[in-house]
């Protein structure tokens, strides 16, 4: 009997559906690169999700040269999935390097949040939100396209 319970619980994530346009986005809380908590709420208009180092680098390059508070002014939140990064590397090198960024990075250290939003791993996923509901989704594999999309958003 225990075997079937364990089997059922291990297969449960396979039945989970990706969030669809029109559905509410479940709130979550993550720590940023300064270990400051952030909770997703109805104020967020854009959720940028990077599930790989390449995708996170695209976001970084797209934001280079922008003033501090650029994402916040656009009600945008950036989530980086760093669960594949060895913890020691993250602690000693990656997270300290992120502290030099002039924007916040919500760090999904255990892949609790980013997998909820399906997209190709190397693309930056852009989720457009309205009062906590998903209204549109886009994927960017180009820094130029991502930068242009961010510039279109009025602060």
UniProtKB/TrEMBL annotation:
Taxonomy, superkingdom: Bacteria
Signal peptide feature range: 1-18
Keyword field contains Signal: yes
Key words, A-Z: Signal
Protein name: FAD/FMN-containing dehydrogenase
Organism the protein comes from: Pseudomonas spelaei
């Amino acid at each position: 009997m225990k075997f079937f319970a364990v089997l059922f619980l291990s297969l449960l994530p396979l039945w989970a559906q990706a969030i669809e346009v029109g559905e509410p986005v479940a709130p979550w809380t993550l720590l940023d690169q300064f270990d400051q908590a952030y909770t997703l709420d109805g104020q967020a208009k854009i959720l940028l999700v990077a599930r790989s180092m390449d995708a996170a680098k695209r976001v970084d390059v797209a934001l280079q040269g922008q003033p501090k508070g650029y994402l916040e002014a656009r009600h945008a939140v950036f989530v980086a999935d760093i669960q594949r990064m060895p913890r020691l590397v993250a602690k000693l090198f990656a997270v300290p390097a992120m502290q030099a960024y002039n924007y916040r990075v919500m760090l999904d250290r255990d892949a609790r949040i980013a997998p909820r939003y399906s997209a190709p791993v190397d693309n930056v996923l852009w989720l457009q939100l309205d009062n906590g509901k998903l209204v549109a989704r886009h994927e960017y594999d180009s820094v130029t396209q991502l930068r242009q999309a961010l510039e279109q958003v009025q602060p």
